[in-house]
Design goal:
The chain is of the alpha+beta class and 329 residues long. The chain has one domain: Ribosomal Protein S8, Chain: A, domain 1. It is 41% helix and 18% strand. The chain has twelve helices and twelve strands. The protein has a seven-stranded mixed beta sheet with strand order 2-3-4-11-5-6-7, sandwiched between helices. Strands 9-8-10 form a three-stranded antiparallel beta sheet. The chain has a two-stranded antiparallel ribbon with strand order 1-12.
Length: 329
């Protein structure tokens, strides 16, 4: 299996993005996200997505030369128009001000609209936590989950993420979608022909299926039944109704070629814990201990954090099939 150093992998992503119509400035955020996903062991959001990104740049679903614009709407709130480019570029533009406002006000928020897929949501909340703030993130997606009892998709997989800071790192990272599994996991299996587990998705008739291709024609199974749909609805309200992104029912696919830019939305909240509770660090440590001292129990986000630490100085492996597709770009 071909291996690439971090610098080689970054250069590969940058080269293919630029050849597909992305400005050099806009390659950094998305390339950083791809590399982080690979190091974190989330390969479904790593180089697997690069051919899709490049194709979407070429056909106009992503504005590769986007110029995000920022508006401060209060002492603790900003909104960023992503100009139908990568969400990463818009998020990067807003984060410095989000941090500055949070340090002064104790809490700050940032909405993103007219944006494309933000990749791994926990990557962005992790960066907020690494600055010492509790990070909350929400992002919507093209509709793929039907309400309980229905068969027509209304909300997307719509993940939310919470990253808690402790001793200078993101010690807890919760990153979960409203569906049983991220749609990209089914997309990967549709390409390999591997069946999906029972309970992940339904076909277009509302029947449970283990065929990934049929699942992509139908709807995703909500995590926890009505609770999962409720979570997706909460995210939809924050990212579409408040932030101004397209509703999932109006957003074009993150995977297919139909339609123009998805123009979805994200919403982020940063909280300075020390301004609310001077005993925050001790309290969080006690909470962490109550989990990790139990044999077999795992702290949310610990696996991806451990993967990142062990992989950050290692080469990135890309399958022969995938690298062949990337080399054709």
């Amino acid at each position: 299996m071909p291996k690439y150093s971090k610098s080689e992998a970054f250069a590969l992503a940058k080269e293919k993005l630029i050849k597909s119509g992305c400005s050099e400035e806009n390659t950094k955020g998305i390339s950083d996200g791809i590399i982080d996903a690979e190091f974190s062991g989330i390969k479904s959001h790593g180089f697997h997505y690069l051919p899709i990104y490049c194709n979407h740049l070429k056909i106009g679903k992503i504005n590769g030369v986007s110029q995000p614009s920022l508006e401060k709407i209060s002492n603790s709130s900003i909104k960023v128009n992503a100009d139908n480019g990568f969400a990463h570029s818009a998020i990067n533009k807003g984060l410095p001000l989000l941090f500055d406002m949070c340090s002064k006000e104790g809490i700050s928020s940032m909405s993103i609209f007219n944006s494309y897929n933000c990749g791994v949501l926990g990557y962005h909340t992790k960066r907020i936590a690494e600055k010492g703030y509790l990070g909350l993130g929400f992002t919507n997606a093209p509709a793929s989950i039907a309400p309980l009892g229905g068969v027509k998709a209304v909300v997307g997989t719509n993940p939310f993420s919470v990253a808690a800071p402790h001793k200078g790192i993101a010690s807890i990272v919760i990153d979960q979608s409203a569906s049983v599994v991220a749609k990209s996991e089914i997309s990967v299996r549709s390409k390999t022909g591997e069946p999906i587990p029972e309970g992940w998705a339904f076909d277009n008739q509302g029947n449970s299926t283990t065929d990934a291709k049929e699942a992509l024609k139908g709807t995703m199974a909500p995590s926890g039944g009505y609770k999962g749909f409720g979570t997706g609805l909460m995210v939809e309200i924050l990212t579409a109704c408040i932030a101004g992104g397209n509703l999932g029912t109006k957003a074009s696919s993150f995977a297919g070629e139909d339609g123009g830019p998805p123009s979805t939305g994200q919403f982020f909240i940063a909280i300075n814990p020390e301004k609310f509770n001077s005993n925050y660090e001790n309290s969080l440590q006690t909470l962490i201990d109550s989990i990790v001292t139990q044999e077999g129990a795992r702290l949310p986000g610990s696996k991806r954090q451990a993967n990142f630490q062990s992989n950050m100085n290692s080469d990135i492996e890309i399958s022969e099939d995938l690298i062949n597709r990337i080399n054709q770009i």
